[in-house]
Amino acid sequence: MNWRLRNLPRLASAAHLNLGVVQTLVRSLAAGWRSRLRRRAILGLGLTTALVITMAVPRSVPVAQAQDLTAALWTRASFPVENFQTYTSPFGYRSDPYSGSPRFHYGLDLAAPNGSYIRNWWAGEVLWVEGAGACGTSIAIKSGEWTHIYCHMHGHVEGSGQNKVMVDREGGIQLRAGQAIPAGARIGRVGMTGRTTGPHLHWGLKYQDNWVDPALVLRAMYVGQQAAL
């Protein structure tokens, strides 16, 4: 199965994109086109109209061709979990599953059977690996201006400081900071390490060190997928 955009699960709660977010992400895409020769993986999202697409690519490119280029860009992205079942907790304030009090949730929870493989959303380099705290066994990957974070995975972290290695021997995974990871590569398995009430992937996204709702990203991926059909 192609784990890029084919059969991307729909996210009904992200049916409309916030204009301010779209504008910010369009600027990201424009930067990506300018740095294409440097092969930096800078991502732009939410291009849903010809006007926005025209803003995001060089003016010499016809709108129809710009739409094709935008759709092609999205074929580089990967849905982050295999054997996906459902979205269990959105980005934003929610009732904390432990205390019951309101608490901000900095990511999107994607439920899948325990041991399901997790795939890298976008090509980049491992920023850090961790094995403790609420996130449990976790990694962060840097892709240009974007940082994507994966929590509650199987395995553990060995070593310390710059020598930390995330190891999941049963899953055949071993990752360390600075390691290059292509989009769609298996980077871990869904588990229950850290603070969790069931097996799922907690997927967090930052753009220029600001948290972004992953639902917006998945919605933009879906729009790009439909444009490529």
The N- to C-terminal Cα distance equals 17 Å
Which spans of ≥5 residues are poorly predicted at pLDDT below 50? 1-7, 12-61
Count of runs of 4 or more consecutive helical residues: 4
Mean pLDDT: 75
The portion of residues assigned to helices is: 10-25%
Rg over alpha carbons: 18 Å
Q: What is the count of β-strands?
A: 15
Which shape, going by the Cα principal axes? globular
Task: Tell me the fraction of residues in β-strands, as a range.
Answer: 25-35%
Which H/E pattern describes the elements? HHHEEEEEEEEEEEEEEEH
Based on secondary structure, the structural category is alpha+beta
Major sheet details: 8 strands, antiparallel
Description:
With 229 residues, the protein is α+β, with helices and mostly antiparallel strands. Helices cover 22% and strands 30% of the residues. The strands form four sheets. Strands 1, 4, 6, 7, 8, 12, 14 and 15 form an eight-stranded antiparallel beta sheet that branches. The chain has a three-stranded antiparallel beta sheet with strand order 9-10-11, with no helix packed on it. The chain has a two-stranded antiparallel sheet with strand order 2-3. Strand 14 and strand 15 (210-212) form a beta hairpin. Helix 1 packs parallel to helix 2 (50-56), helix 2 crosses helix 3 and helix 3 crosses helix 4. The protein is globular and about 45 Å long.
Concise summary:
The chain is α+β, with helices and mostly antiparallel strands and 229 residues long. Helix content is 22%, strand content 30%.
